């Protein structure tokens, strides 16, 4: 029995890659004709419409419009953004149709680090994660959103899942946005200022290649569509990562790769003189830049592999791919790419 799927942020880096992964599996239980892709702009809608999916142009901050879209399209949601209107719409649809409704929510793994306000140290995704999150004082918008997802979904009879997204890298496979955040920001800053920088504290954030992450979303969605038993609700947290990224080692490898291209003045790494400098150079919000750059959550993934997830990337493959990360950034900026070519050719 086919079910309609709605992907929010379908023109984004992760959402676009998830959509591309769905479409790449024509013999799977998720058919392109059952996919509804939410985008913000007309230009994005035109770009994605050629994929054979139903494209919905929608401003997700408009809760009424979101509820109407979910109810009228009879969709289950793979979400990466606003939650309240989506879950309310699913609850209304379930009440009207009597059919099961599902919601996959993307959170942030940084919240499970000391820098992100997490006081409990190591945690497995088989532990009572929601109970621990609820014990922490409210006020962080991302953590509050995860709690809202679980509580509101339960109240409305919607089956929910929460994926705390780790550091993601690699070229996106969607039609629109191709780059992640952290590593491209470091590359752009290094090229602009001719020097690679690091924080005064090393970090080892959990990381995953975007193709492996997209494959997990697809696997989980296929399990849902086929009505296989899957942990959900209060037990529906899934830690999805394949390796730790040791940040100082990464920055050193990045410095060597950029120096080989003539894009920085030395194959060495300097330390940020302050968090303010890091925020300015990287373009990150000052209140969050240290948490983003020094977090080392002690997450223990269990349930993803139990579902049958088989990721293909590890840390050494990641480190070996840094030159491609540089190339992807250059290709995204024609001016920067022209400067790079000029430096390499010596003209």
UniProtKB/TrEMBL annotation:
GO terms for cellular component: cytoplasm. PANTHER family: NAD(P)-BINDING DOMAIN-CONTAINING PROTEIN-RELATED, PROTEIN YEEZ. It comes from Coleophoma cylindrospora. Pfam families: NmrA (PF05368). GO terms for molecular function: aldehyde dehydrogenase (NAD+) activity. Residues 2-70 form the NmrA-like domain. This is NmrA-like domain-containing protein. InterPro entries: NAD(P)-bd_dom_sf (IPR036291), NAD(P)-dependent_oxidoreduct (IPR051783), NmrA-like (IPR008030).
């Amino acid at each position: 029995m086919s079910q309609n799927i709605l992907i929010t942020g379908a023109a984004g880096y992760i959402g676009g890659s998830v959509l591309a992964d769905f479409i790449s599996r024509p013999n799977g239980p998720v058919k392109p004709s059952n996919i509804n892709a939410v985008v913000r702009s007309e230009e994005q809608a035109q770009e994605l419409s050629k994929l054979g999916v139903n494209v919905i142009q929608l401003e997700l901050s408009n809760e009424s419009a979101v509820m109407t879209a979910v109810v009228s399209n009879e969709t289950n949601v793979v979400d990466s953004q606003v939650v309240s209107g989506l879950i309310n719409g699913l609850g209304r649809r379930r009440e009207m149709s009597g059919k099961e409704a599902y919601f996959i929510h993307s959170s942030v793994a940084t919240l499970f680090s000391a820098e992100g306000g997490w006081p409990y140290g190591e945690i497995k995704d088989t532990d009572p994660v929601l109970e621990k999150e609820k014990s922490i004082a409210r006020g962080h918008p991302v953590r509050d959103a995860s709690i809202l997802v679980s509580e509101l979904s339960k109240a409305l009879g919607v089956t929910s899942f929460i994926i705390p997204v780790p550091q993601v890298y690699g070229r996106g496979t969607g039609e629109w946005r191709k780059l992640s955040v952290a590593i491209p920001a470091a590359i752009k800053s290094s090229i602009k200022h001719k020097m690679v920088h690091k924080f005064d504290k090393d970090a080892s954030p959990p990381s995953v290649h975007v193709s492996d992450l997209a494959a997990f979303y697809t696997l989980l969605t296929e399990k849902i569509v086929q009505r296989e038993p899957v942990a959900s609700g209060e037990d529906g947290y899934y830690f999805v990562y394949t390796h730790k990224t040791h940040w100082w080692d990464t920055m050193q490898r990045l410095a060597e790769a950029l120096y080989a291209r003539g894009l920085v003045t030395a194959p060495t790494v300097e330390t940020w003189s302050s968090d303010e400098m890091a925020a300015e150079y990287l373009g990150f919000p000052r209140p969050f830049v240290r948490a983003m750059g020094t977090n080392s959550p002690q997450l223990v993934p269990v349930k993803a592999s139990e579902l049958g997830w088989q990721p293909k990337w590890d840390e050494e493959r990641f480190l070996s791919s840094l030159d491609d990360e540089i190339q992807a950034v250059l290709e995204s900026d024609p001016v920067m790419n022209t400067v790079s070519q000029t430096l390499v050719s010596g003209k």
